[in-house]
Every structure is written in C-alpha cells, then in structure tokens.
Amino acid sequence: MSQVKGLCVMDVDGTLILEEVIDLLGREAGREEEISQITSRAMRGELNFESSLRKRVSFLEGLPVSVFDKAFDSIHLSPNAQIFISILQKNGILVGLVSGGFTPIVARLAKFLSISYFSANQLEDKDGHLTGKLIGEIISPEVKKETLEQWREELKLSKERTVAIGDGANDLLMLKSAGLGIAFCAKEVLKKEIPNHVDKRDFLEVLPLIDCLE
C-alpha cells in the first residue's frame, strides 16, 4: 500500500467480533452470569467503564493463561468483516483496532487480519495464571478517543479522513472524534448521539457510508 488515504478505527468486542471476550473468560471462571450482567450495563452507559472492568477482571483470578487459546477459538468475526477490512486496505485506508478487551486476543485478530495498529488492555499473570488485575494503561472511553487522535496525527491525516466504528457507550467519544462515526448494531445510548448507524450485522452495509474517503 503506497499511500495512506484514510484511517478506520474499529472497536472489537460486539463490533468486529460477535462476542464479548470478558464474558467468555467469565464462563471459564464459572462467573459468566455476574460478568455478563456487568458488561451489558457498562455497554449501555449505566456504569463507569474502568471500575466495571476492574470488577469483572477480578473474577478471573486463578485462570491459566491458556484460557486465551480457548477464548480465541470461540470467537466469530461479524459477517463480512474480513472482506470489509480487505476492501478498505486495498483502497489505501489503514485499519486500526482499539479495544476495551485484552491484548492476547486483539493481537491475534490483528495478525490474522493484517492490521498493524491495535491497542487493548493487558491482564497481569503470575506463574502462568491470571491475578485478576490489569496492568498498564486502561483503554477507557477517553483513551479510545486519544488513541484514534494519536494514530491520525502519526499518519498526518485530517479529521475528515478518519472513520470510527463501535457499538457501546465506551465508543462514544471515539466516534465523535472521528470525521465519520458509525454506530454498528449499537446500544441505544450510542444511536441517540451518533446519526450514522447500521443496524444489520453485516459490514458490507457499512461500505456505502465511507464514500467520503474516496
């Protein structure tokens, strides 16, 4: 790809993939119901994202790090996501992933989809087991927005040449910061604020909205 014409930053859990990885990990810890209830409330904007994430991660204490292999094998890309990303890349639009999920999953997805830009949360492990704690910067709604802006700056792109796609309340700031924010199969809290939304889970439905980058 010779010239970068634009940037499309995508959320991962519930957007690029069908599942919420934290819920899959919760299943392995025997805490799926508690975790998924907190996840749903956080995505609707009813809970502070960072504190709710720390609470959910605490339930994962003691899981072996090999749990990520099982979780990765359990996830599914949203319909036509791979084709969508490939079309963008062939047209000079760089794709980045920014996720409130976890690096061991997001890094593998990025490699599989030939995506070089990604950012996600890191879980602490000790002696091959999760400690139930996060390390490093938390990918909060504010950090999602800042990450998009940082990548945009690095690529020397105008705001108008950036797209952001997400589904939850924690994506709102990022979508508002992009030239084009797209609420994809999104929670009502996002759809109220973002005029462009796709309600059918098919990434080919998103393509017509990105004409501005031609």
**If classified by CATH, what would the architecture be?**
3-Layer(aba) Sandwich
Low-confidence stretches: none
Q: How are the strands of the largest sheet arranged? A: 4-3-2-1-5-6-7
Q: In total, how many beta strands?
A: 7
- Please describe the biggest sheet, giving its number of strands, its sense, and whether it closes into a barrel: 7 strands, mixed
The CATH class turns out to be Alpha Beta
Rg estimate, integer Å: 17 Å
- Computed structural class: alpha/beta
The CATH superfamily is known as HAD superfamily/HAD-like
Termini Cα gap: 15 Å
Q: Bin the strand percentage.
A: 15-25%
The secondary-structure element order is: EHHHHHEHEEHEHEHE
Oligomer: single chain
- How many structural domains can be distinguished in the coordinates? 1
Tally of contiguous helical segments: 9
Large-scale geometry: globular
Name the average pLDDT: 95
